[in-house]
TrEMBL record:
Keywords: Lyase. It comes from Loigolactobacillus jiayinensis. It comes from the Bacteria. Pfam families: Amidohydro_2. This is Amidohydrolase family protein. SUPFAM superfamilies: Metallo-dependent hydrolases.
Length: 329
């Protein structure tokens, strides 16, 4: 069985240095230094993929993303990051595809960079991490990015990002536990997933997917809480003045694709399968931040799925959405 994982990450030494020097959003991953050799070396990706039976990775920049650099630096930094990604993919064209890093807080430049990355570099879409300097993406200033993705017929992966300090302080800092635990509560354990779920909900109820019905969005970590509340949102939002011709679940099921991001858990898979169908599920590990090793292949080969669903989840949906050449297993 072919296996394509679609939320896998890279970085460059130059970007890590620039990020550490200039970014107002600090990476709080205690393993970041240890992970740098895996992030910056595509040959190491290949070694891991060969060892654990992964045929292809769709690679993107998250964590130290050039997206969050100051406006005067981010455009050029994202261009360099995307050029480097395209060059690395060219060395292993049958093993990697890529998503563009975008200077999101400079929306017109971000749309132009998405167009360049797709049409000139051969990247398969873009990735946006978290909120943007405290702004959610339903702000009209960001619409040009989504319009470009729809025009190009490429997906945007909405990835979590480090939440703002004020949000972390209000929701997760506590006198009952220490600062390290608060950081993880506000990050990978809970907080940035909840924020990214709010991000998706806001985009849908803003009418974005009614205006751009062909736009495709990807959400990791089994949909960042949203699938569990889909019926609740569909029932209650109309009472709050939602003025759209379809209910919330219609847009989510039509336009959103979800991945596990290495959360290889059977109950979440069955919920996602029930709500979305296997044709809206794609596989992902979140390498190298998460390294499930033998479990990458074991989870999907033993999951309670039909063989058709298994093939869609493992590679078929990704091949269709990202327009990937069908790789040999």
């Amino acid at each position: 069985m072919k296996l394509i994982t679609v939320e896998e990450h890279f970085d460059t030494p130059a970007n890590i240095e620039q990020f550490n020097a200039h970014s107002a959003v600090k990476n709080n991953n205690p393993q970041q230094a240890m992970l740098a050799p895996l992030l910056t070396n595509f040959a190491k990706h290949i070694e891991y993929m060969d060892q654990y039976g992964i045929d292809m990775q769709v690679v993107s920049d998250a964590g130290n993303s050039a997206q969050v650099l100051p406006d005067e630096l981010t455009v050029a930094a994202c261009q360099v990051q995307n050029d480097t990604l395209a060059e690395s993919i060219a060395a292993y064209p049958d093993r990697f595809a890529g998503l563009a890093t975008l200077p999101v807080n400079v929306p017109d430049a971000a749309a132009q960079e998405l167009e360049r990355a797709v049409t000139k570099l051969g990247l398969k879409g873009g990735i946006i991490s978290g909120t943007i300097n405290g702004q959610f993406l339903d702000d009209p200033k960001f619409e040009t990015i989504f319009a470009m993705a729809a025009k190009l017929e490429v997906p945007l992966y909405l990835h979590p990002g480090v939440i703002p300090d004020a949000q972390k302080s209000m929701l997760y800092d506590s006198k009952a536990y220490d600062a390290k635990l608060a950081t993880f509560m506000g990050g990978a354990a809970w907080g940035w997933h909840m924020e990214q779920g709010v991000q998706m909900v806001r985009l849908i109820i803003s009418g974005l997917l009614e205006k751009y019905p062909t736009l495709k969005l990807v959400s990791g970590h089994w949909g960042e809480f949203v699938p569990m509340f889909m019926e609740r949102l569909s029932e209650f939002l109309p009472f709050s003045g939602l003025d759209l011709p379809h209910e919330f679940s219609y847009y989510y099921k039509r336009n959103v694709y979800i991945t596990p991001s290495g959360m290889y858990t059977a109950p979440q898979l069955q919920l996602a399968r029930t709500e979305m169908g296997a044709d809206h599920l794609m596989y992902s590990e979140d390498f190298p931040y998460i390294q499930r090793k033998e479990a990458v292949r074991q989870f999907i080969t033993t999951a309670d799925l039909t063989e058709q669903e298994r093939e869609q989840f493992a590679h078929g949906t990704a091949e269709k959405l990202f327009k990937l050449a069908k790789c040999a297993s």
